[in-house]
């Protein structure tokens, strides 16, 4: 059994069955004036546009209009580093990294240099990638799509990796977590088809989405117990799901749910000024996931 993981204003201590590490988080600068606005966007683009490829041009136009500073992408199927770099240039990013070239790669693009890149394949169904850009350690997240046990192990490995970062590191976790937030539980409890859908799905795919015939909320709870902040939850006024979208309306995809998140350490979350799921007629046809955007006003010393 994994031990409790705790992060507070001054300390981030991670304990797992295998190892333990620690990093300290700073106090926020009192009276400092914001001088840098930074927009981070995360998007699962569904099979790298290999399915319904005619949506690609509209996606590139949308990304250009969003003018993000950092982007975390999931499901870059069929992508090479060169292909991702070409896409990134359309939204004015000259820096990009790709996790891998097989399966379901993740990618990160930025309009500032990307350093300290780490790619981890062992222990993660899709892999894990992190980098440092704009002074923030950004993780591209894509957890297992259909097994709560594997997702729990991935969360523990993620926290173990975070514990190796420098003291005072600002960290953002952005991507498709494929799991559920306790903040959304009242919505899911009122859905007549949420649990029945996952029962059908687990039979159809031989998956393990349900634990004891119920949704499993422990994955994100572990992040929050470690001090990570669900930025969408802090800024939203109402529930908006990020999956599914009308793009796959002819399939049994289940009720609306939130699978895409941006989590931040407290020393970064304090600078968050906006966070939202972008849900409109345009995004509904760009992917089977909706994008998520967060904006920070950072300070320098």
Largest sheet: 6 strands, mixed
From the structure provided, what is the oligomeric state, counting identical versus distinct chains?
single chain
Rounded to an integer, what's the Rg over CA atoms?
A: 18 Å
Q: So, CATH architecture?
A: 4-Layer Sandwich
Number of strands: 15
Tell me roughly what share of residues is in helical segments. 10-25%
Q: What low-confidence regions span 5 or more consecutive residues with pLDDT below 50?
A: 1-32
- How are the strands of the biggest sheet laid out side by side? 6-7-5-4-15-14
Q: Give the overall shape.
A: globular
Q: Hey, roughly how much beta strand do the residues contain?
A: 25-35%
Individual helix count = 8
Distance between termini? 42 Å
Briefly note the CATH topology name.
Answer: Deoxyribonuclease I, Chain A
Overall tally of structural domains: 1
Average residue-wise pLDDT: 91
Classify the secondary structure makeup into a structural class: alpha+beta
SSE ordering: EEEEHEHEEEEEHEHHHEHEHEE
Task: Please explain how this structure is put together.
β1 and β2 form a beta hairpin. This protein has 301 residues and is α+β, with helices and mostly antiparallel strands. The chain has helices at residues 56-66, 81-90, 148-162, 185-189, 194-205, 218-225, 231-235, 266-269, and strands at residues 6-7, 11-15, 20-24, 36-44, 70-74, 95-98, 106-110, 115-120, 128-133, 136-142, 171-176, 229-230, 260-264, 272-277, 292-298. α3 (148-162) runs parallel beside α6 (218-225). 23% of the residues lie in helices and 27% in strands. It has a single domain, classed as 4-Layer Sandwich (Deoxyribonuclease I, Chain A), CATH 3.60.10. Strands 6-7-5-4-15-14 form a six-stranded mixed sheet. It has a six-stranded mixed sheet with strand order 8-9-10-11-13-12. The chain has a three-stranded antiparallel sheet with strand order 1-2-3, with no helix packed on it.
């Amino acid at each position: 059994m994994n031990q409790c993981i705790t992060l507070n204003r001054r300390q981030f201590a991670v304990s797992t069955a295998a190892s333990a590490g620690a990093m300290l988080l700073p106090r926020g600068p009192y009276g400092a004036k914001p001088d840098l606005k930074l927009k981070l966007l995360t998007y699962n683009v569904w099979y790298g546009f290999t399915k319904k490829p005619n949506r690609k041009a509209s996606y590139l136009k949308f990304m250009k209009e969003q003018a993000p500073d950092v982007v975390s992408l999931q499901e870059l199927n069929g992508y090479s580093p060169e292909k991702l770099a070409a896409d990134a240039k359309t939204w004015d990013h000259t820096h990009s990294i790709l996790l891998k070239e097989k399966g379901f790669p993740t990618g990160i693009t930025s309009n500032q240099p990307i350093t300290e890149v780490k790619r981890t394949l062992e222990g993660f169904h899709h892999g894990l990638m992190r980098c440092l850009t704009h002074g923030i350690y950004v993780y591209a997240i894509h957890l297992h799509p259909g097994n709560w046990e594997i997702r729990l192990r991935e969360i523990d490995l993620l926290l173990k990796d975070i514990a190796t970062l420098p003291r005072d590191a600002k960290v953002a976790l952005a991507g498709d977590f494929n799991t559920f937030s306790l903040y959304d539980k009242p919505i899911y409890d009122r859905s007549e088809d949420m649990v029945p859908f996952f029962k059908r799905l687990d039979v159809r795919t031989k998956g393990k989405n349900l634990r004891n015939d119920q949704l499993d909320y422990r994955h994100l709870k572990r992040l929050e117990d470690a001090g990570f902040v669900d930025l969408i939850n802090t800024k939203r006024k109402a529930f908006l799901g990020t999956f599914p979208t009308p793009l796959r309306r002819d399939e049994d995809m289940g009720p609306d749910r939130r699978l895409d998140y941006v989590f931040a350490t407290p020393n970064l979350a304090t600078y968050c000024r906006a966070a939202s799921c972008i849900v409109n007629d345009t995004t509904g046809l760009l992917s089977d996931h909706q994008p998520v955007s967060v904006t920070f006003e950072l300070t320098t010393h």
